Protein 1
Amino acid sequence: MTDIHPQQPLETQPRYAQHGHYPRATTVDDFRRHLAAVHARIEAACKRVGRNPGGVRLLPVSKTVDEARIRLSYAAGCHMLGENKVQEAHRKWDAMRDLADLRWSVIGHLQTNKAKLVAQFASEFQALDSSHVAEALDRRLQAEGRSLDVFVQVNTSNEAAKSGLPPEAVGDFLRTLSAYSALHVRGLMTLALFSAEGDRVRRCFTTLRTLRDRLRNDAPSGIALDELSMGMSGDFEIAIEEGATVVRVGQAIYGARATPDSDYWPADGQAVPNG
């Protein structure tokens, strides 16, 4: 995929104000319509910067969604899902093992004592930001005879409440990951600032892409930095314009959550949602 670096600021603005208005999907047809609308937004964002939409993977985020509606979304084509909380994800995986090709991506912060659960079921982990977690995951994966695709999380907004490594620490951290053979590093992930100001949001995504471009040529053997996971329901178009290859979208597919965004992420990102 060709990397696109916009030559001038685009007019895209975050769509956070729409979050409370996303309709709830309750049928397979609802999910198909919502997925089609999200894919149309992806295609429009790609067209603006000359990218191929095939270079952007949509990761539906099913956090707080009950099993019945997840099964409907699966029937509509959602065969890999993102979850923030490990225990919630593990419970859903266990209840839906009959869906043999349904895969799970853990996209939220992980404590080392939950590494055993992730090693049992996850296909992907997008929030790796410490050697303690890397070691715990690798050890548990080795015991399970499994491997795991991982993304290194970067705190591009410099907010103390957010997880993720500061950009200047990522290079050294990547060099430590070669020791963990069960972890397959695929790229970097970030959560942008929650702000109605598009320029401030865009800077977070630009920071991640610039960091990836700088580190990619000197990455240790076996460490791939091809992927950029960035962008959620309200800001994924900006993320795509800045080079996202994975966008994590929940509310635009499943509908507005019962709790408002401010419960997850008040005033410029003091708490962290995903999707």
Protein 2
Amino acid sequence: MKQISEILKKYNLKPHRYIKNGKATIIDTEMGRFVVKKNSKNKKIFDYLRSRSFNYYPKTISDENDDYEISEYIEKLDYPNEQKMLDLINLISLLHNKTTHYKEIDYDDYKQIYEDIKNNIEYLESYYNDVITLIESHVFMSPSEYLLARNISRIFFSLNFCKEEIENWYELIKDKTKQRVVVLHNNLDLSHFLKTDSSYLISWDKSKIGIPIFDLYILYKRHALDFDFSELLKQYEQSYPLQKDERKLFFILIALPPKIEFDKSIYEQTKEISNQMDIMYKTEKLISPYYSK
């Protein structure tokens, strides 16, 4: 706590209680409650957000050159997660609206995305072909092996969808001259959203400039089974409509099946496969209306 004590002393904060909270420390002082954590060095992002009138993050009182960042403590409201997720989606669409700008397309970036996804698809096809061959050679399947074998067609269907769509996406972006980019929070999670009389996003350590769909992708990967993303995506697009190539890339990314490795107990392995199959089903349900004739 020595380094924290030194930074508090610099700003005349006299602590009378420390509460460890993950990577952060909550400090109770005579001047109120504050959060102290390692400086993320993201001051330029916050300067830019302020210039775009986006002020939905805890205010800091420390200097950008300090080793630790001191920010105000936000006492969150306790209300239903469904409403909280809707508020989060609305805030993200506002963030993207406020920070949208266009830059010359760097085709090397697009080519890297294209090649990374193609290589991933080829690897997963080979991996799951080997896995199902091995499973089918067993006289008796374990519950997790049986569950995967019963659903292997869904995995290959998703891989075939991604294989076709990545080519379509690459064709779409060939004629583009400008790329739409925004400030990405890049670490979206329901636990990183706080609500009081205003809304706040915390944990900006990974924020950067990029394509807007990557915020949606991270949020989907973390909460796909928790909420109806069909409605959340519609809500987001009411304020910030995705471009055709953006939406296509988003669908490809969420449709890519993960690599399921058999390195857990039978119970945990079966549970993981069941969850992944549920996510794939929800993803198919989310995507299919956009492809119906």
Protein 3
Amino acid sequence: MKKSIKVFLIILITLVIIVLADEKYAPSKEELIDSQNEKNIESENKMSLNINVVIDKKTYNAVLEENETAQSFVNMLPQEYDMSELNGNEKYIYLDNTFPTNSYSPKHIEKGDIMLYGNNCLVVFYKSFDTSYSYTKIGHIEDLPNLGDKNIVIRFEK
């Protein structure tokens, strides 16, 4: 009986040591939060993919999203499109090919947004406004001016 009590105590002490050792090396809540913050910062610091957008002989920088839709779009470049006017705030064209989508309702469109409506309608917004429609974001054209109320040729290039 004494022998079984000794064995039991040895097992119990061993288990307590293992548990305490695990707690000692387990990350604290603060360490877990710091780790997640570092991952978020790394994600934000990734090199964004930039392309050129040429409108009326002027070149604008566009910063693309890091998603499948934007990647599929880039893989097609360079492309030039005769885009139609719609609603006094956007230019659009229905493309022959389709893209992967992850649409959502942004609630607000910013001037310069490049979006995909459905799976094959490329849209460039040249005015900011609120919307209830759903889009997949491709990117954003920096410093885009008002493009006027006529159809326009827009060239996208790497």
Protein 4
Amino acid sequence: MKIAFVFPGQGSQSIGMMGGFGAHPVVRRTFDEASAVLGEDLWGLAESGSEEALALTTNTQPLMLTAGVAVWRAWCETSEWRPTLVAGHSLGEYAALVAAGALTLEDAVPLVRFRAQVMQEAVPEGVGAMAAILGLDDAQVIALCAAQSAADAVVEAVNFNSPGQVVVAGHKNAVEQLMVAAKEGGAKRAVLLPVSAPFHSSLLAPAAARLAERLREVPFCAPDIALIHNVDVREHDTAEAIRQALAMQAARPVRWTQTLQEMQARGVTHIIECGPGKVLAALTKRATDGITGLALTDSDAIGKAQETLASVRDR
């Protein structure tokens, strides 16, 4: 048995998402720690904030980072099981770095707030868009983007989430045209996503440059747990290499399918989603063959995941 932990990013947030972790006081303490760094009440936002406030990128990114780290700490306090690999989907990579000991939460919280700000500022609101294309393979979506894209109407494949699920991003008009072309080309669905910027597209190159400058000020060290970066599906164990991977990630595709398949190639048998929601656990089932995906959505789920691992060990 070989375990990997994965951390979700934007899109997994919801009002009251941490309410089921009352059995783990470390969760609230982690939120208090992050709130003190920002000078804002992240726990109040998570538990009773409006949907609009939760969806605001500058709120979502520090909130989801804190949630992922809080659940990780709850797991570590109550379980002997430790992963041999970690990864995070987009923003989730920052929580993975904290879990792996490469970055402190104190440094990570203001860093992801800055990341959110520069990503939002790179493209004026209303100019960019993202859409999920379901039912076409990666090559088909890439080809459609190449056919539709132009200098003033960019559309690119930016999230390879699982076979048959690819997210595109770019100028809003180009994304909308791509959605039409995808449906005509046999896609089952093409869904516009409720986001405020074309994340991970080349339009965010200015954000990547600003993030690279900010990253130079942040201390990193070699991770204690092997971490697969989703921009290049590789491990990096020096501060400079980690900084480069994080900067590139802002304006390049998230290669999540390949990340999961790399974990399978390394013998991973169980992938545990650490944070609110079940998105990554579901993607695990679609992108791998035979890996068990578990999601730590509340205190009960933590206990059940531990029971599942124990039952496999004791066979």
